[in-house]
């Protein structure tokens, strides 16, 4: 889920004044598709999941600029920009200016995140961040975020909304990265919906109390065992659980998102062996094992990054 940006055209002069939080006390304004969201609260949902809530004029502008169809999807996402804290850059970032004044390694980096909740009436939203100490860029920022901190977000994308047909069976599959989208989809299902949702996480401590219809079975899988020191490779338990399911005998709505290698295996099973129509299938990779997001996004244009055959 990244986009390219236009070549630099603005002189580097005054770049520090334009980007430093200390340079101006004026409210952050949208810059292109960027909106500066203000952190209002932080909540630790599990050992490796932090929920940040955002509000303010930036969120109101973000909602107003959004395509209602994308904003209403249960997999609504945004591209977030993170800058090195020691540079004291304040969102929204003038990337054209920064390219003129900073080395490549100091430019803000993009990361793609699902929006867990949006409330247009109160101009608030929530984003869940998977965190592993000081690993990565977004996680450490989320761990240290305080009310009043700003985060740059693009206008949202999104494509999946559960069918309103209660008779259509559901199969939702994902790992930690897909929890926000699956949780939102489960909440949006008809009360009499039926099906199965299987979510893979590190351990039992990462399970969340997700609301879901009584007719939808929620199954949690763990990569780490309480009795065995071995930890399964990300995606392996999810693929094994899916392969253990009986093949559907009719149409089924499928939402499957997570690690790239696992999603390729699930595509072979669900679309290939089971023959589920692609019109009923939302399946893509949110990340790839051993790849930073920049490399993962670049590989989407190469054979290694393709989930479906051409």
TrEMBL record:
InterPro entries: FAD-bd_FR_type, FNR_nucleotide-bd, Riboflavin_synthase-like_b-brl, SIP_FAD-bd, SIP_fam, SIP_rossman_dom. It holds the Pfam family FAD_binding_9. SUPFAM superfamilies: Riboflavin synthase domain-like (SSF63380). PROSITE patterns: FAD_FR. Residues 1-40 are annotated as: Disordered. GO terms for molecular function: oxidoreductase activity. Residues 11-34 have a biased composition (Low complexity). Residues 1-10 have a biased composition (Pro residues). Residues 32-163 form the FAD-binding FR-type domain. PANTHER family: FERRIC REDUCTASE, NADPH-DEPENDENT, NADPH-DEPENDENT FERRIC-CHELATE REDUCTASE. This is Siderophore-interacting protein.
């Amino acid at each position: 889920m990244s986009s390219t940006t236009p070549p630099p055209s603005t002189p580097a002069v005054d770049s520090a004044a334009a980007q430093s939080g200390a340079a101006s006390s004026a409210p952050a304004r949208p810059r292109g598709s960027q909106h500066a969201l203000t952190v209002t609260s932080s909540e630790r949902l599990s050992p490796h999941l932090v929920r940040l809530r955002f509000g303010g004029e930036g969120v109101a502008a973000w909602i107003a600029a959004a395509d209602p169809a994308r904003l209403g999807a249960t997999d609504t996402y945004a591209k977030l920009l993170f800058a090195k804290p020691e540079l004291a850059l304040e969102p929204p970032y003038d990337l054209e200016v920064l390219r003129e004044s900073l080395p490549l390694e100091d430019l803000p980096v993009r990361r793609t995140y699902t929006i867990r909740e949006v409330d247009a009436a109160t101009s608030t939203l929530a984003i869940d961040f998977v965190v592993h100490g000081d690993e990565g860029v977004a996680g450490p920022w989320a761990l240290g975020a305080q009310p009043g901190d700003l985060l740059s977000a693009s206008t949202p994308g999104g494509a999946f909304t559960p069918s309103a047909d209660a008779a259509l069976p559901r199969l939702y599959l994902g790992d930690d990265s897909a929890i926000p989208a699956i949780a939102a989809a489960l909440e949006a299902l008809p009360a009499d919906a039926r099906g199965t949702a299987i979510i893979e996480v590190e351990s039992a401590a990462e399970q969340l109390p997700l609301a879901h219809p009584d007719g939808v079975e929620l199954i949690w899988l763990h990569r780490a065992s309480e009795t065995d020191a071995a930890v399964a490779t990300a995606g392996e338990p999810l693929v094994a659980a899916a392969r253990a399911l009986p093949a559907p005998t009719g149409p089924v709505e499928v939402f499957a998102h997570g690690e790239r290698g696992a999603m390729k295996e699930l595509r072979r099973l669900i679309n290939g062996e089971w023959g589920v129509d692609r019109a009923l299938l939302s399946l893509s990779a949110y990340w790839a094992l051993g790849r930073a997001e920049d490399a993962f996004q670049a590989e989407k244009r190469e054979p290694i990054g393709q989930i479906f055959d051409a």
